[in-house]
Structure formats: C-alpha cells, structure tokens
C-alpha cells in the first residue's frame, strides 16, 4: 500500500500561479519506507512528508510503505533491476555494500555542491557514519537509527532486595543480579527470568553488544573480512551460552525478538536487551516503573549502532537527485529529527537536534531518552559486509548452533569464519 502526497487548497492555488517554465520543472519522487501500514512511525513519516510537500509544491512525493527492512531492500533492488528504481529510500545501514555492489545508489559527495551541504554532511554522529561511509565517500544518511539498550523492571529489583535505581554495570554484575532476579515457584518452575537477550530476528546485533564489550569488532570497515573466530568473539559467545546453561538466569534455547517487550511487560523477565527503538513502546505499555541503561561493560563499554539510512538511487534525473537531497536535508534537520525521535524512540542522528526546545523538554521529562545517545560514545559499526545477508545468515546460524548446544562456541565460530572467508575472499 502507499500514500501519495496531495496538495492542499492553498498549495494548489500557489502552484497554479507558477509560470509554465517553473511548472515544467515539477519533480516526482518515489520514496520507499520500511514500515508496515499504520502505527506511530508511519503516521509520523506521513505527517512530515505532507509538511514538506505543502512547503514545496513543485515536488510530489509518492511514499510507499514497503514493509520490513528485508522487504524494503528486496523491493528496491527488484525495482532497480526492472528499471523502475525509486528515487530515495530508507534501508538498513548494513545494506550499504549490497547497494554499492548492485550499482543502485550514488554517493552523497557526488550530489552535494555547496560548502553548507558539505558541513551538513559532517554534522551527523561519527558512530552512525561508520555504517554510512566507505572508500572515503558517504553513501547513506542516518535517520532511523538506534543502539541496543538495557531495560530493567524497578519493581522486580525491589522485590529481589536490589537497589531499583542501580542496574548491572558489568558482565559479572549481570550474572550476580540475574541470580537474585530469577524466581521459581514451589514446583521449581521459573516464573521470572533474570535477563532476556533475544537470539532471533537480529541475533548478531544483540550479540555485538557482547563482542564489542569484549573489545573485538566482527568485520572490517571495507566489508571484506570478518573476525568470527577471534578468541574474544568465542569468549563472548561462551558468556552468552553460560547465562542459560551455567548460571540459569536466562531461558534456554532461542529467545524470540518480537515477543521480548511483551515478556518484559508481563513480568517474565526482569531485564531485557532490545532496541532503543522500543523506548516509546515500553514507556506507553510497561505496567511498572522501569529504567534504561547502557549495556553492561566487560573489557570496555560498547554496543553496535543499528537501523536505517537514507539512500539516493542512481537511476534518477539530476533534478530528482537534487530534490531527494533537499528532502533528506529537511527531514534530518533539527526540528524534524527531534519530532521523529520523540515519536518513535529512535536516536536523533545529529547533536543539534538535541538542542531544540522540543527535545530539551522531552529529555527533561523523560531522561531515559538520553541513554542511547550517550552510548554512541562507545558504539561501533553494525556488522556489515559485501554479500551481507549471506554473511549474517552464516553468523546467525553459528550463534544458533552454540545457543542450542549443537556445537561449542569455538566450533561454531570457526565454522562461520571458514564459510565467510570463502565468500569474501573475492572482495579483497
């Protein structure tokens, strides 16, 4: 489904008064956005896009709700191959190398012209730009961006005799707290787990919290080499496995991503790791007082960035590329970025957005909104390589093998590294 931007009465009148020369320059843009129809994100995007269209009657934006991130990149690449590419889209930042390899997108460096635009390009948080740049060029502009954070149930902490305002700050404390927070009934069945770290949906992403905290990155910045078999990665995976198998503070087996917030709301887990993109959801639906914190540290603090970037597609006219750039500049500007962040919980991608009166009022009322932003200081690029979907599938399969006991962490990661090397050697 899609919605097409229609001009209001005032805008129509203004458009009719344009000269024939100006009217001939009207630009049509098709914009793929990764969300199902409806919901806060879709409503906010529609509102923002309408606002832009009203102020720019010479630009018509057809915003297509493209479903999940996976659906969006698939639809976009299918459209590219069929000669019907959109002009711009929000697609996962980790799909940058895939889009480059498909020759689908242009570098922003090749579209921007003025010194002002060059300065704009440098104003985004460096941690977000790690998944937006390669080879000295910028291919993506951060927008729907996030980091994983830790949420905890303050009521559960009180019942366990823990300070409700002090979350676990280290791996050792996560285990220590988790044991006190794991509750069993008279029959010995667990009624509340200490911690919940999802291992479906985006297992590599939450695992990157652990690998980063163990001071190792999963892939290089050129997207052609992985470090899956590094001893620090294996050690991090062993810790994850031990939360269930050894310490008994997390449910065994694969833990579902999608049901994690609901399990948290219903008291099935006292601590959960999930996206800051769930922040508004938790604020609106948690029936108890909760806290939000950076992920706990081991050798260092750390988390991956995540989420989607804006991309401009190569199969566009110069006028469409210029209009796409103008729209992206507008929607990522402080006021609009603040509005988007407040509505969804995603991290406003530029420091100046946090200086707006709206954002200052929001964080004064709801300080947890600052956690993901502050964690950017310790953040690294999300796992991203050429043949990214194949590589992440290999890695996710390795995580699953270790979590379900089909292989040891060492066996699983060595196997994943060998498979990744076979694919990526052609890109070195």
TrEMBL record:
Tagged with keyword Transport: yes
Pfam families, sorted: SBP_bac_8 (PF13416)
**Localization terms from the record:** Periplasm
Question: Which residue stretches, if any, does this entry annotate as coiled coil?
Answer: none
The region annotated as signal peptide is 1-26
Task: Report the InterPro entries cross-referenced here.
Answer: Bact_solute-bd_prot1, SBP
Q: Which UniProt keywords apply?
A: Signal, Transport
Q: Which domain of life is it from?
A: Bacteria
GO terms for CC? periplasmic space
Family assignment from sequence similarity: Belongs to the bacterial solute-binding protein 1 family.
What the entry lists under PANTHER family is as follows: ARABINOSE-BINDING PROTEIN-RELATED, SN-GLYCEROL-3-PHOSPHATE-BINDING PERIPLASMIC PROTEIN UGPB
Q: What does this protein do?
A: Part of the ABC transporter complex UgpBAEC involved in sn-glycerol-3-phosphate (G3P) import. Binds G3P.
On subunit structure and binding partners, the annotation says: The complex is composed of two ATP-binding proteins (UgpC), two transmembrane proteins (UgpA and UgpE) and a solute-binding protein (UgpB).
This one is known as: sn-glycerol-3-phosphate-binding periplasmic protein UgpB
């Amino acid at each position: 489904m899609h919605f097409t931007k229609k001009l209001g009465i005032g805008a129509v009148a203004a458009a009719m008064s344009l000269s024939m020369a100006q009217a001939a320059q009207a630009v049509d843009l098709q914009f793929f956005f990764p969300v199902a129809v409806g919901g806060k994100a879709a409503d906010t995007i529609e509102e923002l896009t309408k606002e832009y269209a009203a102020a720019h009657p010479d630009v018509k934006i057809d915003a297509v709700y493209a479903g999940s991130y996976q659906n969006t990149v698939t639809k976009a690449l299918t459209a590219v191959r069929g000669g019907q590419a959109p002009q711009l889209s929000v697609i996962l930042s980790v799909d940058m190398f895939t889009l480059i390899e498909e020759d689908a997108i242009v570098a922003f460096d090749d579209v921007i012209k003025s010194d002002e635009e060059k300065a704009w390009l440098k104003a985004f948080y460096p941690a977000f730009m790690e998944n937006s740049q390669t080879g000295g060029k910028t291919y993506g502009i951060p927008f729907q961006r996030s980091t994983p954070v830790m949420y905890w149930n303050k009521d559960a902490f009180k019942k366990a005799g823990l300070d409700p305002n002090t979350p676990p700050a280290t791996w050792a404390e996560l285990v220590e707290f988790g044991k006190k927070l794991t509750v069993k009934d008279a029959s010995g069945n667990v009624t509340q787990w200490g911690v919940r770290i999802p291992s479906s949906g985006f297992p590599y992403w939450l695992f990157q919290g652990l690998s980063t905290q163990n001071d190792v990155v999963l892939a290089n910045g050129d997207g052609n080499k992985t470090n899956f078999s590094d001893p620090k990665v294996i050690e991090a995976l062993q810790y994850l496995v031990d939360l269930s198998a050894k310490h008994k503070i997390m449910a065994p087996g694969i833990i579902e991503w999608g049901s994690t917030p609901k399990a948290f709301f219903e008291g099935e887990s006292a601590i959960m790791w999930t996206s800051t993109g769930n922040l508004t959801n938790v604020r609106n639906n948690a029936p108890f007082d909760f806290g939000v914190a950076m992920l706990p540290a081991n050798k260092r603090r750390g988390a991956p960035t995540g989420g989607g970037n804006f991309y401009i597609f190569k199969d566009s006219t110069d006028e469409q590329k210029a209009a796409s750039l103008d729209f992206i500049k507008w929607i990522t500007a402080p006021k609009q970025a603040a509005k988007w962040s407040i509505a969804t919980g995603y991290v406003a991608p530029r420091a100046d957005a946090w200086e707006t009166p709206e954002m200052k009022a929001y964080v004064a009322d709801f300080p947890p909104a600052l956690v993901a932003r502050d964690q950017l200081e310790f953040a690294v690029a999300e796992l991203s390589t050429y043949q990214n979907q194949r590589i992440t599938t290999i890695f996710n399969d390795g995580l699953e093998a270790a979590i379900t006991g089909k292989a040891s962490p060492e066996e699983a990661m060595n196997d994943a590294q060998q498979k990744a090397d076979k694919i990526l050697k052609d890109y070195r």
